[in-house]
Amino acid sequence: MNKHVAALTAVLSFFAATALAEVALRIVGKPGTPVIGWTNGRPGEQNQFAFRGHPFDPDASLRVILLGDSQVAADATPFESMPDAALREALYEQGAEHVSVATIGASGWGQDQELLALERYLGAIRPSAVVLWFTEGNDLWNNTFPTHMPKDGQPKPTFWLDGGRLAGPNLPWLEPYRPSGLRLFQAFERLRRIPLYPTDESWEPHLPAPYHPSIPPPGTPSLVEALARHRGVSRDEVVNFDYEQFDTEKTHYSLYLVPESPRLRYAADLTHQLLVRIREVCESNGAKFLVLTTERWGFTPIPEAAAMYEVNGRGYMMSSAAGRRLIDRVLDGLPALRLPELPSDLMVSKSDAHWNATGNRQVMTMVGDALQDRYRLVSH
């Protein structure tokens, strides 16, 4: 009997300790809850919407939203040289007397967060026009996965296609997220460095099959070394290459892959549907819509005809012509300003393809001209 009593006492003690630990974790709010999605902006460089950008004037007679990712946030350029300032100046030169440009965007965004942010802030801004700065190499995989780079990076809301139609998002934007279950188990998961939010792997059942690499023959050029030579930098200066996830197509180079995988086709279709939804939101609120691309196909050595490159011992066929055809499909039927290759000295550096202050000014001047030519935003 004593053995049974001892065993029962041990079991009860275990459950009591577990309950106490659970209560203690709930009282102190541990483990912490991640926020789904993000904004950006340093103190003194934020607009009233919590993005890096100049203060927005809601009383301006001409109001424009500049929507996008790291291109609009322009963290590598001085605050006074941001794209919103350059676009405002360009519209002044067109004859606008009272114009204000609101930056809505952050590094790492795709069209999913762009859509949700637009829906949230559009009523306060009441824009005459929305310019969405589209980034060919980033946006498709930004939209496809539930986290930012690297694998299982910062979590975000994610849309998906259900029978070819846009569905989602899976989680509310900019709200804390806590999975169901005991806090104690969540604490153990955190100790094992397992994210407490939807992971890339957990999302993959939503996605079609990725690209299947081959065994590269001897002498196949290394992609990272080819990139380094092409840009005139060292291998270590090829930004973020070690974070590229070629096995899942969570990579800046997925759009070049041939033949086109089911996953890449899905990513393109999803991105197109998100852009269409953004256009519909703009038009239903009386705002003109324009997609801007600043094409940088020359930033890679990938040729027009398909050629194989080696990455982590696997062979990947790539073609810049295939990438352009893919983006043509993504932007099909949308009002777009597709700027051709601009001089490389307008970029931040050989390893950073964001535009510098001069590049921002030149690009935004062309955007201002396009807005006036297409939509006559400024009356003369």
Quote the beta fraction: 5-15%
**What is the N-to-C order of secondary-structure elements (H for helix, E for strand)?**
HEHHEHEHEEHHHHEEEHEH
Q: Tell me, what is the CATH class of the largest domain?
A: Alpha Beta
User: Given the structure, what is the number of helices?
Assistant: 11
Which ranges are low-confidence, i.e. pLDDT below 50, for 5 or more consecutive residues? Answer: none
Supply Rg: 24 Å
Distance between the termini: 98 Å
Could you give the order of strands across the largest sheet? 2-1-3-6-9
Largest sheet descriptor: 5 strands, parallel
Write the SSE topology.
Elements: H1 2-28, E1 62-68, H2 70-73, H3 83-93, E2 99-105, H4 111-125, E3 129-134, H5 136-144, E4 160-162, E5 165-167, H6 183-191, H7 200-203, H8 223-231, H9 262-284, E6 288-294, E7 307-311, E8 314-318, H10 320-330, E9 336-339, H11 357-375
Parallel strand pairs: 1-2, 1-3, 3-6, 6-9
Antiparallel strand pairs: 4-5, 7-8
Helix pairs in contact: 3-11, 4-9, 5-9, 9-10
Please give a structural write-up:
It is a single chain. The chain is globular and about 95 Å long. It folds into two domains: 1-30; 34-375, Rossmann fold (3-Layer(aba) Sandwich). Helix 3 (83-93) crosses helix 11. The strands form three sheets. A five-stranded parallel sheet has the order 2-1-3-6-9. Strands 4-5 form a two-stranded antiparallel ribbon. A hairpin with a 2-residue loop joins strand 7 and strand 8. It has 380 residues and is α/β, with parallel strands linked by helices. The protein is built from eleven helices and nine strands. The model has no long low-confidence stretch (mean pLDDT 90).
